Amino acid sequence: MFFGSDNWAGVSPLVAEALSACAGGFASAYGSDDLTTQTRDALGTFFDRDVDVFFTATGSAANMLSLSAVARPGGVVFAHRDSHILVDEAAGPESLVGMKLHALQGRLGRINAKELTEALATYPREHVHRGRGIAVSMTQGTELGTTYCVMDVAAIGSIARRNNLVLHMDGARFSNALVAQNVTPAALTHESGVDLLSLGFTKNGAWASEMVVSFREDLRDDLTYRQKAMGQVFSKNRFAAAQALAMLTDDHWKVLATHANGMAKKLSDGVAALEGCRLAAPTEINEVFAIIPQAMADKLKAASAIFADWPKDTAETDIAPGEGEVMIRLVASFATTDDHVDQFLEAAQRAEAA
Cα separation of 89 and 79, whole Å? Predict the structure, then answer.
């Protein structure tokens, strides 16, 4: 009953095979090898256009690299108040990148166009003391397991263009969002105004496969030098590239994400059917956010179920836990099985009956 996070799972066998296949022999270093070139070409095909790709060790590093490449004096980055860059990256965007983060409200983890427009108005260009808007960062899927549709992304992209802002997308669970929205990678990114994407395959079944995908040729030099300065140029880059290529081959990413999303939906339906339980957010990707009795949560943990208690202030007031309740997060992965879900639901039913 491991639902702590999708990065608790291991590695897809196809990714493991790809790593093993390039373990022998010799290849040129620092991303100049043939496998890295093949992977960059494959990503171009994936996004249906030429792209620049910069591999990183972690998703946080990809976010830092993206924002550092567009950083300017007095810069402000607008992001949802629950976003990873605001809550879970140890003030990296501020201390390392050197730009202020402005927290935006928005239901179910999503930035909305009205809120962004109002926030931008508080940083008039003629008023040097406040700072200036430089970028917007949106998370796909969000920190509440929801997604932005193409129209949502395009609306934010339109505001970004009108205000000369860079639009960054944190895509740690981009594969899951793509499956949920059933659209092309191009439609959900550059065709809707996204300039930079932190693309992650780690949570979807890779070992460590994170990268910045740039749709802006004019940012190439800044990203190249920033990547080196941040210690993110891998000596043996073929091992990073091999994982991404394995995920892209025959849409393996889609197979894994479809399975993870399906397991989350089964889990979500089962939890919602339990007495005293309700969903805190719609289950759109591989994350389930639910409000359950505290006593049930305690019994589930005693039965060795692994999941996360979620902060109460994450949810809007109408879906926040009440007295004697707790909000939890359950995350399915490519490795989650029907048996895992059934075991959890059976344990919850026993707790319900007790």
Answer: 13
Please report the pLDDT score of residue 318 as a whole number: 67
The arithmetic mean of pLDDT across residues 211-237, rounded, is 98
Task: Output the CA–CA distances (angstroms, integers) from residue 242 to 32, 36, 130, 228, 301, in the order listed.
Answer: 13, 7, 45, 20, 38
Give the span between the Cα atoms of 239 and 236, in whole angstroms.
6
CATH of 253-353, one of 3.60.140.10, 2.40.50.840, 3.40.47.10, 3.90.1150.10: 3.90.1150.10
Name the residue among 280, 281, 290, 273 with its Cα closest to residue 352: 273
The answer to whether the beta carbons of residues 334 and 260 sit under 8 Å apart is yes
pLDDT digits (tens, 9 = 90+) for 261-275: 999 999 999 999 999
For domain 12-250, the question of CATH label 3.10.129.10 is answered with no
Q: CATH 3.90.1150.10 in the chain, residues?
A: 253-353
Burial class (CB in 10 A: 0-12, 13-18, 19+), 307: buried
Give the model confidence (pLDDT) of 52-67 as tens digits. Answer: 999 999 999 999 999 9
